[in-house]
Structures are given as structure tokens and as C-alpha cells.
Design goal:
Number of strands: 7
CATH architecture: 3-Layer(aba) Sandwich
Low-confidence stretches: none
Mean pLDDT: 96
Strand order of the largest sheet: 3-2-1-4-5-6-7
Bound molecules: NADP nicotinamide-adenine-dinucleotide phosphate
Structural class: alpha/beta
Number of domains: 1
CATH superfamily: NAD(P)-binding Rossmann-like Domain
Largest sheet: 7 strands, parallel
Distance between the termini: 40 Å
Shape: globular
Length: 229
């Protein structure tokens, strides 16, 4: 059996990626703070999905580790959870910066550290960090997304560093810099904008990438966007 852990599975891209991972034959541990939403995900996904109420900004990982002790390995970790605060740079407070970096950078970093023994036990593990085109060097930038985009750029860089440090441990680490996808996050940030991609379509792509791409890529930050540039 192959095991996957995915954060931000209560809605949007994470919800659909978790469903798709189950359909692709994985046992999935789905994380988020919203237990009701995770219960609904389990109703759709069935026996091969387990869930845990989990706040990425808290450092106590014991409940998570208890679950992983049963699996004994993790083949795929998808750091999908994200926080977007849409505010002009001049208005951003230190609390805003802390909140965004805690969810988008420090949360994934903590989780990757905690999961390291289980990833190593896989022998061929894949960490997929969900970045953003906003954090991709040279991409079009949008007003209001400074903290969000900077945090995603940092996550992309962390991806490259982890890949280098763990390249001999059977753990690959890649980052997908996503373009616009129809979700609550995007609707809140850009009201009225209709993105070309559904979360179901993106979830299917991420699930396929997570299961296969570590044989072809390591330490890569890949734009997933049909827009130009
Ligand atoms: N949608 C887009 O156009 C787009 C474009 C580029 C990149 N992305 C990235 O894709 C990922 C998914 O985005 P989405 O659009 O599906 O977002 P979304 O609908 O807003 O969902 C965000 C997810 O993150 C989780 N989350 C937020 N804070 C958390 C915390 N402190 N602890 C645990 N989980 C937390 C939420 O779970 P709970 O609230 O239930 O805890 C939720 O499941 C994000 O990383 C986002 O930056 C999205």
C-alpha cells in the first residue's frame, strides 16, 4: 500500500487532490482545521481516506505522528494548505506577514521535518509543495499579493534546498507554481474573475504529478499555467 499525506484537504484544490489520490490507489491522510469538511471528504472517498484535525501553525505534531506510526512510511506529502491576504503592501501589518508565512512557509517546513523518518522509510518518497505563479520569478505580479507571493517564492526556494540536502535519502522535493484555479481563495482575492481551470482538473494533475514525477524531477519549481508569460 502507498500512503499520502495532504494538507488543506477541506476544500478547493486539496479536497479534489485527496479524492483523486484515493482513486489512484493511495491511502490518504487528509489534514485541515475543519473536521466537518474532512468528514464530508471521507464520505466521498471511502475507507482509503483517514483524516485529522490539524492546524499547521501549531507545533504539536503528536496526534499526527501517532497516525503515521500505524502507516510506518509516507510515500507522498503534498503541502497544499495556503493563506492569501490581499492587501496593499503599505497596509500590511507584521501580524499579516506572520500569518501568511506561518501557513505558507513555516507550516510546511515543520511538517517536512516531522515526516522525514516516514518519508525515508518509503525509499522513493515525493514531497510536492504547492506554490503559486505569484511566487515564480519573472511572472506577472498583481497588487495586493506581496506577502502571499513572497511566501510562495520562499517555499519554492525551500524546495530546492531540501532536494539538495536529501537527494541521497530517496526523498525528492518539487514545487508546483500554480496559475489561477476556481476556488474560494481565488474568488475572495479576485471577485468576478473566471479562471480557466477547476479544482477537479488541477487535483487530477497534482495527484498524477505526486505519484510519478519524482522519477523525472527533483528540486524543481515548475509553473502550471497556460497563461503567457
Ligand atoms: N486557487 C488558485 O487560483 C491558486 C493559485 C495558485 C496557488 N494556489 C495554492 O493552492 C493551494 C490551495 O489553494 P485553494 O485555492 O484550494 O485554497 P482554499 O480553497 O482557500 O483552501 C485553503 C486550504 O488551506 C487550509 N489551511 C489554511 N490555513 C490553515 C492552517 N492554519 N492549518 C491547516 N490548514 C490550513 C484550509 O483548511 P482549513 O481552513 O479547513 O483549515 C483549506 O483547506 C494553496 O497553497 C494556494 O496558495 C491556489
Amino acid at each position: 500500500m502507498k500512503y499520502a499525506v495532504i494538507t488543506g484537504a477541506s476544500r478547493g484544490i486539496g479536497f479534489d487532490t485527496a479524492l483523486q489520490m484515493v482513486q489512484n490507489g493511495y491511502h490518504v491522510l487528509a489534514l485541515s482545521r475543519n473536521e466537518d469538511a474532512l468528514r464530508q471528504l471521507k464520505e466521498k472517498a471511502g475507507d482509503e481516506l483517514d483524516y485529522l484535525k490539524y492546524d499547521l501553525t501549531k507545533t504539536d505534531c503528536r496526534p499526527l505522528i501517532e497516525k503515521l506510526e500505524v502507516y510506518r512510511k509516507v510515500d507522498v506529502l503534498i503541502n497544499n494548505a495556503g493563506l492569501l491576504i490581499n492587501k496593499a503592501f503599505q497596509e500590511l501589518t507584521m501580524e499579516d506577514w506572520d500569518a501568511v508565512f506561518d501557513v505558507n512557509l513555516l507550516g510546511p517546513a515543520r511538517l517536512i521535518q516531522q515526516l522525514r523518518p516516514y518519508l525515508e522509510a518509503s525509499g522513493a518518497a515525493h514531497i510536492v509543495n504547492i506554490g503559486s505563479m505569484g511566487g515564480f520569478q519573472g511572472s506577472s505580479k498583481f497588487p495586493g499579493l506581496a506577502a502571499y507571493s513572497a511566501s510562495k517564492a520562499a517555499l519554492a526556494n525551500l524546495t530546492e534546498c531540501i532536494a539538495e540536502e536529501w537527494k541521497d535519502k530517496g526523498i525528492a522535493c518539487n514545487c508546483l507554481a500554480l496559475g489561477a484555479v476556481q476556488t474560494e481563495m481565488l474568488a475572495a482575492a479576485f471577485p468576478g474573475f473566471e479562471p480557466p481551470m477547476t479544482s477537479t482538473q488541477m487535483g487530477a494533475y497534482i495527484a498524477h504529478f505526486a505519484a510519478n514525477a519524482h522519477h523525472f524531477y527533483n528540486g524543481k519549481v515548475l509553473p502550471v499555467s497556460a497563461s503567457t508569460p
